Automatic annotation (TrEMBL):
Keywords noted in UniProt: Iron, Metal-binding, Monooxygenase, Oxidoreductase
GO BP, sorted A to Z: aromatic amino acid metabolic process
Protein name: Aromatic amino acid hydroxylase
Record family assignment: Belongs to the biopterin-dependent aromatic amino acid hydroxylase family.
PROSITE patterns per UniProt: BH4_AAA_HYDROXYL_2 (PS51410)
Cross-referenced Pfam families: Biopterin_H
Binding residues for Fe cation: 132, 137, 222
GO molecular function, one term: oxidoreductase activity, acting on paired donors, with incorporation or reduction of molecular oxygen, reduced pteridine as one donor, and incorporation of one atom of oxygen
Protein's organism: Aestuariibaculum marinum
Entry annotated with the keyword Transport: no
Length: 586
């Protein structure tokens, strides 16, 4: 079940429990009339501009995903329509950890930050918001080829191994995005947060798999262009939702490069417009590059490299051996010999699985203090244990109730009395349990008889290593506590008064109250809120449609006055008027 106050559907019902901790109710009634006006302005301007420069899936996708130009989308309504294309949407509070974000994608669920940017940040916000997610991501997923790329990206991306510093950077970026969007943050507080992000970015060391795949996500899903270098179209959500960057990116000031695997190593700065962008010839090419990158990941390569990545991450991860047995836990040590792992050790609660399903009796209660096992072949025997027939096993004394000493290549020695073994569906031995067991490597004792039963995983090699547990039910994953939450300050009396004026204009346009005097609204605005520019633009639209030339002239005079006193909003005003004057039926 999803959290309270969230309407579910068959796609959301498939989500694993640990992802539900990030979902929050949308609380649609919390959007103010100013928020609705911000949405409407951005969408009208975007659709007007993007109809010429966006990939043709965008406009069609707006219709298919139920996104209105005039009103912030209601998550319930979106979900009813999205399920027709096999997707769903959930609301979250700003940035969530990258692995979780991608795992949602793997389940065909779009993560939407339900807050909306302030009027002061109408062109661009560093914080994820409903304009970015709802108006940027959602329309393009109506394209089946792109939707499959997004799902596959999530499936691979959520297995990418992070470094300990990645999570620190995630928290710092989340904090920066929150305080930059908060209306009462001081310049000093923002400066300190920016400096922390900058310092972390410059001292990340060797980039982790997650850092590299996030680069690919940024240059495609967020800031991707499609078509030819000479005449590209926009499909990235960051561009589709930014009225500033969508125009800027089409100029020669932004370098256009062919999209290749090289984009993996191109970092980005979330707080600034992008100096270069990558152009993919088609959506199929995105999947080709993704699979090329996936071939470099520990998920597919395994080996010593994969184990070392998990040790560096200091987080829950899994290795899979050649027999299919999977060891999940926090990996703390690996003993190597001639470039190969010969013994691996986890610390704390660990679990054993086969094909993503925990082996009965081998969960974290059994292995609550870690798990260690040799990897590889027995010394002097060409046949790996997993490939031995029952007759071979008998010949080497690998048999129930036999006392045996197994000497592995690399000098790991396991000596004890065999209790039993477990086999996989193909009949291969995947685990052997011993009593009175001692495990050593040279003079180092790795397991003592008094520690209890020794369960030895069987496998001649590590074929995969990835982030997270093999079986999602093996561990308590509901542990996410963000260090900072989106700031919502109490509204002042003046702010409520301004919202009331916006609401009157909205009610008039929607036909809810045609008795409202728009001249009176304008007079109040000029007297009490002389620098507000968006409501006069909305008033002008109504006057223009009604051929009220006197009112139009008064509003235009007031807007000219605002432009002189606040030149930074001049282009926003001009763009709004241009859409109205061109009588574009948006």
């Amino acid at each position: 079940m999803t959290p309270n106050n969230i309407e579910s559907n068959p796609i959301l019902d498939r989500l694993p429990r640990h992802l539900l901790q990030y979902i929050k109710p949308q609380n649609y009634e919390h959007y103010s009339s100013i928020d609705q006006a911000v949405w409407r302005y951005v969408m009208r301007k975007n659709v007007d501009f993007l109809s010429a420069v966006a990939h043709n899936s965008y406009l069609e996708g707006l219709k298919q995903t139920g996104i209105s130009i005039d009103s912030i989308p209601n998550m319930y309504g979106m979900n009813r329509i999205l399920k027709n294309i096999g997707w769903a949407a959930v609301a979250v509070d700003g940035f969530i950890p990258p692995n979780a974000f991608m795992e949602f994608q793997a389940y065909n669920v779009l993560v939407i930050a339900s807050d909306i940017r302030q009027l002061e940040h109408i062109e661009y916000t560093p914080a994820p918001d409903i304009i970015h997610e709802g108006a940027g991501h959602a329309p393009i997923i109506a394209n089946p080829e792109y939707a499959e790329y997004l799902r596959r990206f999530g499936e691979i991306g959520c297995k990418a191994i992070s470094s300990a510093k990645d999570y620190e950077l995630y928290e710092a970026v989340r904090h920066l995005s929150i305080i930059k969007e908060a209306p009462n943050s001081s310049k000093e507080v923002i400066h300190q947060a920016e400096k922390k992000v900058e310092d972390l970015q410059q001292n990340m060391g060797e980039p982790s798999e997650m850092a590299l795949i996030r680069n690919l996500h940024w240059w495609t899903v967020e800031y991707g262009l499609i078509g030819s270098i000479e005449n590209p179209k926009i499909y990235g959500a960051g561009l589709l939702s930014s009225i500033g960057e969508s125009a800027w990116c089409m100029t020669d000031a932004v370098k256009k490069l062919p999209y290749t695997i090289e984009a993996t190593y191109q970092d980005f700065d979330i707080t600034k417009p992008q100096p270069q962008l990558y152009v993919t010839p088609n959506f199929a090419h995105l999947s080709l590059v993704l699979e090329t990158f996936a071939n470099t990941m520990a998920l597919r390569k395994g080996g010593l490299m994969g184990i070392n990545k998990l040790i560096t991450s200091k987080a829950l991860g899994t290795i899979e051996l050649s027999t299919g047995i999977q060891i999940s836990g926090v990996f703390s040590e690996v003993i190597e010999d001639q470039g190969l792992p010969i013994y691996v050790q986890t610390t704390g609660p660990s679990a054993l699985s086969y094909r993503e399903k925990e082996l009965v009796g081998h969960g974290t209660l059994t292995h609550n203090k870690g798990f260690g096992s040799p990897i590889g072949k027995l010394k002097g025997i060409n046949l790996a244990i997993e490939d031995m027939s029952p007759r071979d096993l008998r010949a080497y004394n690998i048999f129930e109730e036999e006392a045996v000493t197994l000497e592995f290549e690399g000098d790991i020695i396991v000596s004890g009395e065999i209790i039993t073994g477990k086999r996989n569906l193909q009949g291969k031995i995947i685990m052997i349990s011993f009593k009175n067991c001692t495990v050593t490597h040279h003079s180092k004792v790795l397991f003592k008889p008094e520690w209890g039963v020794y369960d030895m995983a069987v496998g001649k090699s590590v074929v995969s290593a990835f982030s997270g547990p093999a079986d999602l039910n093996s561990f308590n994953l509901i542990t996410h506590k963000p260090t900072s939450e989106t700031i919502h300050i109490k509204k002042s009396k003046e702010r409520l008064q301004l919202e009331a004026l916006y609401q009157q204009v909205r009610d008039y346009r929607d036909g809810k109250n045609k008795t409202i005097s728009r001249t009176k609204v304008l007079d109040e605005l000029i007297e009490h809120f002389p620098t507000d520019w968006l409501l006069p633009v909305e008033l002008y639209e109504l006057a223009f449609k009604g051929d009220e030339t006197v009112l139009c002239k008064c509003i235009l005079n007031h807007l000219e006055h605002i432009k002189q006193n606040k030149p930074q909003v001049g282009k926003l005003i001009d763009d709004g008027l241009k859409i109205i004057n061109s009588k574009v039926n948006v």
